[in-house]
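G., the chain you wanted modeled:
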Amino acid sequence: MNVLIVEDEQLAVERLERLIKDYDPSINVLYTVDTVKEAAAFMLSHQDRLDLVFLDIQLADGKSFEIFGKINYSKPVIFTTAYDEYALKAFKLNSIDYLLKPIKYEELDAALNKYKELANTADSKLTIDNDLLKSILLKGQKSYKQRFVVKFGSRIQFKRSNEVAYFYAEDKICYLMSASTAKRYVIDHTLEELDDQLLDPARFFRINRQYIICIDSIKEVKASDNRLEVLLAVPCEDRLIVSRGRTSDFKNWLNN
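Predicted structure as tokens:
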């Protein structure tokens, strides 16, 4: 069996590869990619060789559903996702299965056994209803998080979303940076959870793997070494460079 892993978090890739090999060492992971663009190109050019795709929802340059708007692909898909139950109907109707992160071996085992059963039927092709997937996800995202519980020393406080300058991840810890105090606070969320489910996309944008910024905190955007650099009103220790794969979406976000 030849599989493709579409995932933009390296630790998640390594974990999934390990679990797949634990299930069946003969399974061949042909390739791993982390963008919509790369995934669409690989799935189109290797469709004859691919048996199964493990597909994360949020990729480095957008939602993986965009792939099915670019190419015709009818082979089985297993979604890997951090989304809550509101989206599971979409995954159930449009894929072999879905795996909630962090992926557990028992769930992968069940999903691959389900794939094998399908592969033994006369017709193992699958039609992806891209519009249905999008509509269910968007419906589930209409309500955005208004405040965050934060840790500051031994104290627990809360910060409203309109107080946030940006979020960033460092050493597996996620921080909220206050726009008013320029202080950082630990929060119990990942950037993936924030970007996928909790933040209003009209106000927040993930410019790269480490940072999500608020539109209200942007002071200036400038070209730097053929990349876009964001300068914020709140101090930041790092240079905030927009990932190449997100540049176009970032410009569109600024224009909304």
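The radius of gyration is 20 Å.

Shout if anything looks off.
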